[in-house]
Amino acid sequence: MSQAPNDANPNHRTHGVPEGLWMRCPECSAMLFRKAVEESLHVCPECGHHFRISAHVRISQLCDPDTFEELFQDIEPGDPIHFHDKKSYKDRLQSEQSKTGNKDAVVCGKGFIKGRPLVLAVMDPTFMMGSMGSVVGEKITRAIEQATEAKLPLLIVSCSGGARMQESTLSLMQMAKTSAALARLDDAGGLFISLLADPTTGGVTASFAMLGDFIIAEPRALIAFAGPRTIANTIKMALPDGFQRAEFLEEKGFLDFVIHRKDLRSEIARLIDFCAK
Amino acid sequence: MATTIVESQTDTFASAGASNLRHVLEFEKPLAHLEQQIHEVEGLQSKNGVDYAAELRDLRNNYTALLRKTYGHLSAWETVQVARHPQRPLFRDYVEMICRDFRELHGDRHFGEDPAIQCGLARLAGHKIMLIGTHKGRDTKEKIKCCFGLAHPEGYRKALRCMKLAEKFGLPVVTLVDTAGAYPGIGAEERGQAESIARNLMEMSRLRTPIISIITGEGGSGGALGLAIADKVAMLEFAWYSVISPEGCSGILWKGGNNVAEAAEALKLTSKYLKPMGIVDTVIPEPLGGAHRDPRAAAYSLEQYIAKTLRDLKRCKTENLLARRYERFRDLGVVIESSRKQSSRSMA
Description:
The complex is a heterodimer of chains A (277) and B (348). With 277 residues, chain A is an alpha/beta fold.
């Protein structure tokens, strides 16, 4: 099915990866051959724009081939507060599950990066914008506990719109739970590398994402507590250029470094080697 | 139901007794009407010297019955309005009513002083404590200074600095939370709003001294949680605590329409729901008709709760306290796990 991208649908320009052989880069508008983009780790060969990628694509890019072993995969979301807006949370979950093939917005497991063993938790922006409810909180907490017990380095790849509204205050509590588990990992002398991908916002930024021994981010990733729209609405002012992008946070002192996707594996391996006891 | 929060100046205040004027919420209007009647009959009685005791007794009984009925069945959105009532006691009011001594401490030692979060050494019911709370400001000038209780990173960092002090000198920490959320602004983001809250979550979870947190009014999202990691978390009866405000939720999920009441209901943000979920351990009852009708009674309940809980927590060994604090938050969340054949770690 060869087809030029459909410009009438704004989703094709702004989000995710559209279907078809060709795609357009949302940053430089270049027409790109999909295969070429995939081969360059979902980075635009023209301008270096880092496309959002699913948890499974991320894991296959990061881990040594065939070393990833998924953990806690039978944990599924419930509908604890019977949430209902225009659509019920149950229906929303079902359609997201059949769309993505995942049960919720994080994939955890053990794997190797350049031969170094580690525990990974990778958030999935394709599932309800990577939002954190009970399942994400529980699986990330278990990954942290696993890393603490097994004395393995921990890598969390954050990519999330924040806490999930549909589980309300229970989602908020996941921030507390994951942060408390990280305190124990820290007390035990464990290594936690926090990688922030576009976007990392809200309750995820205000909990585990900002608690890494090392905090690194992909170029141009949006990293925020309050989203740019909320801020613009509150202060009624235009926001400065590059505000809340990875480079901005690095300049303000909140990131160790910004790193191109192609260099992630070697940099993570390097950090692990420096911290090995 | 009507979604007006603030009415025009002319009919916002009903006379409630001779001296104090009270802001009347939309759903309180029938109550205000009765109050007005009682007031008029009282006036007639003293002016004409006629004995209206029987009429007054009936009216007062009606009033109490209506008050009980209204406040016994508040919708979620009505509760949010009570939590934001302009005459609801604020942090400084509670300090004046429950502390025998309060030495305020300023500044985060890094960047500045944020009056939206106030910290100080306090004596309460015979206990020496570190008291920390969000303050919304009582008059316009103070409200602007305090950003209406929306804190900046300096506020969270000052709070953590004071908690560390408390840990060092063996003082328990008590936090009173009443904030719509952390401030969403350029400076706040530049100085690491997210990092400051995250840091508090992590450090409070392992602070080696007892912590009690009470949501006294609004418990808005991460901005509230950043002061609410504790051994015991309580909330006043008509407070709310949620991941997002009803306005924010309605704006995102209902897009455009004014569905705050529906959003408030859907978020299950009242004490009625949060206690069974284990998110709060205790609901502190408010005086009939809410804390704004009788701030002293509300303050008294608050003080009683703090005094009793401090006594209990001080008896625990630090190691046990920390283990239980961890488990308290570890258990929150509802997931379905097929291999374990159980539907959750906490509620169903």
